[in-house]
Amino acid sequence: MSAYVGDAVPTLDQKAYKIEGLCGDDELKKAPTLSYESTPDMTKPGSVKIVAAGAEASDNYEVSYGTGTLTVSNRPVTPPSSSDKTEVEHNQDGSTTTTVTKPDGSQTITHETATGTESVVAKDKDSNVISTEVKVSKKDAESGRLELPIEGEKVSKDLDDAVEISIDVPSSVTATSPYR
Fold first, then answer.
1. Where's the MBG domain (predicted)?
2. Domain tally for the chain?
């Protein structure tokens, strides 16, 4: 099983295991319960063992369990085309800023904080912001800390010219536990 840094912890349900060795229409009497050996840290790459227990089959079978693992990895970056110019800046605060400039002068600027929050700003060839997307890490959502990448942008009186911002937050942010 795999997930990316910043994702919610995957649910361990019947899709998280497979059964092998049963004959014909035979089924388990009781499905296994799955759990993580320790709480997965979704703020950095790593792995956690998945433990299965409690499955029951008829007397004709002996139940055994394989090893399961949740692997958390950094989200892959789409490589730019050979004509794109890419600059990567590793900042002192642990964040990374990647700027991809297309041959027409348009840019995509991706900033990922040390805690996993990612913002992506797309600019046209005249440096006008055409879209902004923010994916808030669970750690930042729970701490109430968030920086939006709109510093230095012009205020627009015309709604059609306004900067549009899309913010994705972890499922842990709810009406009863809002972002601060």
1. 4-71
2. 2
> At which of 15, 47, 76 does a domain end?
76
Centroid of chain to Cα 150: 22
Extended beta strands in 83-168, E state: 85-90, 96-101, 107-112, 118-123, 129-135, 165-168
Question: Quick one: 67 and 18 in the same domain?
Answer: yes
Full domain range(s) for residue 56:
1-76
Q: Are 109 and 153 in a shared domain?
A: yes
pLDDT, position 180: 47
Look at residue 172 in the predicted model and tell me its pLDDT: 62
Instruction: Please tell me whether the overall predicted TM-score, pTM, comes out greater than 0.90 for this model.
Output: no
In sequence order, the β-bridge partners of residue 168 are: 135
Specify whether the CB–CB gap between 130 and 173 falls below 8 A.
no
CB 88 within 8 A of CB 97: yes
Q: Of 76, 110, 132, which residue is a domain's last?
A: 76
The H-or-E segment that residue 139 falls in is helix 138-143
Residues with pLDDT less than 50, the chain = 180
